[in-house]
């Protein structure tokens, strides 16, 4: 074992984490016994040779694309996984906001869930007794404290979860993509609270694929790629290195022409840009959203028809919108934007499909189904169902 | 595609108890949650958990004692059955609910670290509430009908503690198995019915008419089934005012706690894989 670390300090040396991926899906005892063959496995290093030094009071950002090992690293620090190689030491109490509201019981009231959640974080009942009003107050749920949380909107759920987690007073706070939800005002409050925590000497490790949030919260950052640290330094510099790499990759993949579509035209990327200008996959009900569609046509295209469609998780089409006469210049990434002042969705998970047809509809030039997964969180509990009605009441 | 953990550094064979310090609060909260969910917050819920063994006791008494006369050589047959049903009911419910508990709380386990053994433990411990109420009702009735048992009754406590250990151990082992093989829970549901009939709940192993002709068979039923010594032990001190022989005593105080230690160590050793497999 290495040298002891101070509270709030994280020290990792040569951390590696190996997973075995089973190629067959057998998870039943019956099948395992009957088939008697060992499932084929493939080894995957989710992390390799990662060194980590975070000092008390410092905020470290971890950026990287999906599958780069960000979440694995966070779970190692949280103690949920152990490293397969190397040494990792974390000083003091770790509070993780890896999933807000993990462990809420739908039939329990807000207050009861505060106690349950606090106990999971290792808090004493007496401590919660003293801080209960503060927790409920921070979440702005005074009027809903004694109502079962199943009646809460997803936004209220998040607020309560965040509020409990922020009152854990850990030495090390782990944040994972959690700040991209809730309304703008509450987000500001969360950032404020996180800043207070940092000023008071707390250590933060923040994982996000929203680089602007990393710049905002963190002093230092590391960029992970395929489980290795490829950049390390001031947050601003690492984030811009991340952007540079993304652009380089974009031209690489464009040259390889292996995206969704034909040899001649493909959907390079589909993103949702929220009201604050960040690319996100979670938005709040009624928030302005722009769907960005990046297309690449090797030889260009004249008069293409581009359709953006929404589906629910069951695959049912909810609606689509088509634009005609799109001109794409040859061998360039071209950007189309579809703006919504507010999506007509209230709550749920949705998929975005993008289809490109030729002018006369004779040929489908490209199709990218489920190009984007978008979660919409409701603003309040004054409604239900996936559709946002948006009506206004007139009372007698 | 399923992902599997690659075991990190070796963990000691014996389970760690020190890591549980500071988590008493969580255990209590989880137990309370379990009880709340089970009884839906109503006193009637607890009553229901007592109605079932009582009504089954009436049915079995009617069938085996009044009509069939198969149990005529068992004194106080209704009490005899009720003690058996209370004991078995606790064992089955806690093992069955405990074995599904890790999977049912997958969200929690993937997201936050806390000693995972607390989840099956809370499931099992929550079951003791209805067992405790059952025995609290049973024991006075019992002393009224069989007064001489008053001096052996206190032994129910250590015997029940032994059974609790056995249930905990099995719940820990099976809850881990259930994460790796999702059909363990269903398999268990199938096994419990024959297991019930092979455990001397409705009958006594010593009162079986052809028992003396097959002594080895009786031995297998007695020692091959880990629940049997507990049922017989609890019955002996509650109904017969006798203390079981050293063999049974040794069994009661070795097998249950031994299995609990084994189960706890299996949960702790598989902690890493649990978070990956769930």
Task: Give structural notes.
- With 396 residues, chain A is α/β, with parallel strands linked by helices.
- In chain A, 25% of the residues lie in helices and 37% in strands.
- Chain A has 8 helices and 18 strands.
- In chain A, helix 6 links the parallel strand 6 (172-176) and strand 7 (203-207).
- Residues 5-10 of chain B have low confidence and may be disordered.
- Chain B has one domain (46-277).
- In chain B, 71% of the residues lie in helices and 1% in strands.
- The two termini of chain B are 13 Å apart.
- Chain B is globular, with a radius of gyration of 20 Å.
- Classes of the chains: A alpha/beta (396), B mainly alpha (278).
- Chain A binds chain B through residues 18-23, 25, 27-30, 32, 39, 41, 43-44, 75, 78-84, 94, 96, 98-99, 102-103, 105, 107-108, 115-116, 119-125, and chain B through 1-9, 22-23, 25-26, 28-30, 33, 36-37, 105, 107-114, 177, 180-184, 187, 272, 275-276.
pLDDT < 50 runs, ≥5 residues of chain A: 253-259
Task: Domain count of chain B, please report it.
Answer: 1
Indicate the percent of residues in helices of chain B.
over 70%
Strand-and-helix sequence of chain A, N→C?
EHEEHEEHHHEHEHEEHEEEEEEEEE
The number of helical runs of chain A is 8
Give me the strand/helix succession of chain B: EHHHHHHHHHHH
What proportion strand of chain A?
35-45%
Straight-line distance between termini of chain B:
13 Å
Tally the beta strands of chain B.
1
| Strands of chain A, count | 18
Task: Report the biggest beta sheet of chain B as strand number plus sense, adding barrel if it closes.
Answer: none
Q: Largest sheet of chain A at a glance?
A: 6 strands, mixed
SS element count, helices of chain B: 11
Q: Could you say which overall geometry of chain B the principal axes of the C-alpha atoms support?
A: globular
Instruction: Compute the average pLDDT of chain A.
Output: 83
Percent range of helical residues of chain A: 25-40%
